[in-house]
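Re-run with default settings, no changes from the original entry. Doing this only to confirm the output is reproducible before filing.
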Amino acid sequence: MKVRMSSLILGAALCAMVAGMPSHARAGDETETAELLIALIKAGRAVVSEHQALINDASKGNKGFTDEFVGHEIIEKFKAKTRVDLSRPNGIPQSRLLLTMLESEREVVLEAQPVINKQGVAFKGFIPAVFARKAGQMFHRKTGIKMKLTGANYRFPGNKPDDFEAEVLRMFANPRHPKGQQYAKVTMVDGKSVLRVMEPEYADATCLTCHGGPTGERDITGMKKEGWKEGELAGAISVVMPLR
């Protein structure tokens, strides 16, 4: 199943122009793009979180939580956060990548419709972290840009921090590091120049349902709770963007 979005071709000319620029000249622009991608996947995750009770309502079949509905909600949340309106992408330099991420998020919801709409089953396993992980994987297949949730207390094996991410997570955990401040660096991965951006994430009340206390107790997913407290460092969103 695939969401068709003709507007994905927007921005291709700009990207072709940018491809010819030296990587050091583009790092600032790419950092802004990474920040917008992070904001977009966070918007999608928030939409899933806000509708979790509906998704897990065993009494309802068709819940109306469609890819079209979710796409609209994501656009509105993203616009409120960034002032970038993806319903009118003309003139947005990053439109191609942003619309590809939005497409990926919609496709994840579209593919999950049989699960979301199944009656007689309460917990569906379609939670914000799963949504974000699958959207990131789909986006990576389309663009070559890696996006993942990572942290010291990771649950999904693919979220395990690499050496770079582990070092930055330790920096985020240092009380002297300004809370919420991102970290960006141009470095080499597999012999290629890439921009790496990480944004710290902190536990809020919604996280504590599965990740709070008491430590070791099983949450609704069957995993052991980590004992997080509100406001503590929960992990980070990590972006690895090739510099062409």
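The beta strands are 146-150, 183-189, 192-202, 233-242. Residues 175 and 233 are 10 Å apart (CA to CA).
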